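Internal QA ticket QA-208
Title: Verify multi-chain structure generation after dependency bump
Assignee: T.L.

Test input:
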Amino acid sequence: MERLDTPPDVVIRRLPLYARSLRYLLQEGVHSVSSQELGERINVTAAQIRKDLSYFGEFGKQGIGYDVQKLLSHIEHILGLTQEWPIILVGTGHLGQAIARYEGFRSRGLRLVGLFDDDPAKVGQSVDSMLILSNEEISRVVQEQGVKLAIMAVPASCAQDVTDLLVAAGIRAILSYAPIIVQAPEGVWVRYIDPIAVLHSMTYYLARYESNLF
Amino acid sequence: MERLDTPPDVVIRRLPLYARSLRYLLQEGVHSVSSQELGERINVTAAQIRKDLSYFGEFGKQGIGYDVQKLLSHIEHILGLTQEWPIILVGTGHLGQAIARYEGFRSRGLRLVGLFDDDPAKVGQSVDSMLILSNEEISRVVQEQGVKLAIMAVPASCAQDVTDLLVAAGIRAILSYAPIIVQAPEGVWVRYIDPIAVLHSMTYYLARYESNLF
DNA sequence: TAGATTGTTAATCGATTAACAATC
DNA sequence: TAGATTGTTAATCGATTAACAATC
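Actual output:
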């Protein structure tokens, strides 16, 4: 059956988890998997997996389940992971350097092509043989390499300025580690990695638990 | 009016964002804020903020809005941030070291009290004057210091084992950076920081955009 | 007082789950 | 064939939003 609904964002955010689990299954030499089995691995119901996939097509076989390799290919295709995406990283503090040293980008369809910092003392140094450039060069690199995706690991105080710079340069999606919500125009996606906020939401439950409220 | 509903987890996850925005307002010297103004800063509707807060009490004044300092205190109290939470970190790769070097824990109600790795070559070294201990010492430290909260920055391949170790030691909440969903018993909260998954959900939109589908 | 904004209810919207015919 | 599991529909559940009386 044809599906014309545009898939909700929650569904899109689950697809990478399905893909990853399928990669692990493949490594383990598993060739076929049911929605039930896949769901148990990632704590999602079987019905949800089937419903999610139905937004994009029919990938399974009744009575059998899904061919791991095939379903993985389909999902990678849906996510646009058949191509390699150049990305840039702005901010080379402790966290930025750790990200720059991450070895896994290439195998995950991403390639770090630029490293930027606005601190003149850092510009010209290098991290893992990758040269740190000035923020003023962002625009040039983004345009030359057709970069659409940026990681922002800068202090809250300059996050909005850097966002504006990235948007002006042509970046369309930003993953921000800065502890602040930035404003970006329509058509630019911003997502946040916010470990402190996550920890603070867990202390809520810990505090409740400690006082024996459940 | 009294509210007996237990607040949904989505609400709990938004509270830290409200708290943070209020801290910024306080720094800026703003004393009073309406749900409208607060909402604009963090891209949340005014109605949602008021509804969220109503799970916990009445903190505003009709016609006026909220006293920034008071509302912040209330939210910090709700989140259990009136006490300092000891935390441990397992895994001292690039990312783990960056986390260990993070200076902001103290001011955010968290205190790193232990750093662990299972690599004998790393045990005994130190990061920022904090000694790396063997994973075998997790249980002792957790019990001695009453630690409930752990950050896990280990490879996917040992994430489940480390989780089991943490749970056995008495940890009740885990923030995991490992790219795998781990199984934990009831009453133990696990949350994930998964930058690659987030990037992969953004490539979906970039791929759509590139092919001019919207 | 008049204007503004809260807290709360009811309406709406959207996501998840259950159930089952289709079919491998 | 009998058993298993999909894809899809309808029912349920839960979260967001709109609206407004209460009130500062």
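Spot checks passed. Chain B has a mean pLDDT of 95.
Status: verified.
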